[in-house]
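ping. complex inputs:
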Amino acid sequence: MTTTNPDLLAQVRDGADVGPVVTSTATRGTRILGVLTIVSMVWLVVFGLGFSPADRDQAEAVRILYVHVPTIWVAYMAFVVTAIASAMVLLRSRKGSQASSSLGWDRLAGASAEIGTAFVGVTLVVGALWGRLTWGVFWQWDARLTTTALLFVTYIGYLAVRRLDGTHRQRAKRSAVIGLIAVLEIPLVHWSVRLWRSLHQEATVLNTDGDIDMDGLMLFSLFVGVIAFTLFYVWLMMHRTRVMAMEDLIDDRGLDEALAARRQEGAS
Amino acid sequence: MSVLIAAKDLRVERRSRVVTNQVLPFAGVTMVIFAFALDKETVLEQVAPGLIWLATMFSLLVLVQRAFAIEADDGAIDTMRVAGVDARAIFVGKAVALAAQLLALEVVLVLLAIVLYRQTVPMDGVVLLVTTLLVATCGLASVGTLYGGLAAGVKGRETLLPLLVLPAVAPVLIGATRAVESALGTVGAVVSDGWPWVGLLVVFAVAFGVGGSLAFGPLIDE
Amino acid sequence: MEDAGFIIGSYVLTFAVVGVLAAWVVRGGRRLARRTPDAEKYWT
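pong. complex structure:
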């Protein structure tokens, strides 16, 4: 379902030059997804802040987890998508086939990483708030937090590589390499940090490795959260990849125009 | 081929002496100013292994910039590729040269730590210490060469390189520091505790050595 | 009860980011769609 205007359509039929008729990246798929996302997010708030009970140990602070866990979940999923798309970029460009197909994968990788990074950022901040309530501190250097912080910085680096000067193919290949290295790096970092922190068994007051026992309504709220944010991720990806395609197009067109102008100067 | 490239890099260094005249002093200065920031001598003694590796990391960034600056000026890497040189050979060659320079730098840093931070090297820690230096260096050289290749000749590479390299070498920083702590007996660490960390460093070196040589090709091709 | 503040704050922050991302991408889509020819829009 595109944004259509019957008068505009009539003009196009009459052959008038009215510019693009499609004026957004929305389609029927995204509208449906969008509605589902909003519904599930509302459901999440209602259950997370309302119907679900307080926790035995954490009291009301457990409610934060209903948004905190979904955000990091989406981030992990996004980075896995980036890795797979990066692998596809490298495989496609190796075969020397159409540049366009590998660029499609490249846009997928880039969009996913952007969303992932944003969500890791939110995870870190919200996690700090939760930590303040449950542990009494905003931050500590345990395995999970340290690795998440490094995860964030690593993908900031990935995004920076995407912004380097160069052709779209260069961008695709460079960031594909970084994207794949990142998914190798992160488990390695996690492993080292786990090993490291296991040496420093602090008082069990701050024991963070034990996962919280959830059941019933609490688990359900968490589940709703994961669904809601996953839907949002897909919706956002659809829009963002379309926007990126247009950005690249305009980029290329700008280059073509510059080249044409240069040639004209040469000719005259 | 890699040998030729490594030899070429080291010859460039021998003639220009940039590392000995600038990078080593930089590392030395870093060790000194750590003492300014961390006032207590007892603290310095305890964190000495960490400071050695911190200074190494900062120097690594400088060394990598240097290693690829010498190529960028003449477009040498592109020339090599056009001439049909395998990207993996270039990677290994540059990594070996980088490792050699890094190793020399680390030895100096350890000596400085012995002098400035009152570290001692017990006899049974020597093997661990040397092994750690060797293995960690291989990992660092691989990471440095890989990201250096990516950032080479690109605007803003000076600021991009640290952003990419430092998170990536976090495992080395963790592992190498713990291993050296065990080797030197700092904060009561025992030599036998250090070997698992060397294991981690080996995994890191292999992962980035292999991964780096494979990834280097796509990175430097246009 | 500072707890409530943190909890509400977490939700507000999370949904604010969600909203900002959504607005940014939809706004960008509309702006760029005006500047590109329909033939290239593969989603139609």
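Chain A touches chain B at residues 90, 93-94, 150, 153-154, 156-157, 160-161, 164-167, 170, 173-174, 176-178, 180-181, 184-185, 188-189, 191-193, 195-196, 199 (CB under 8 Å).
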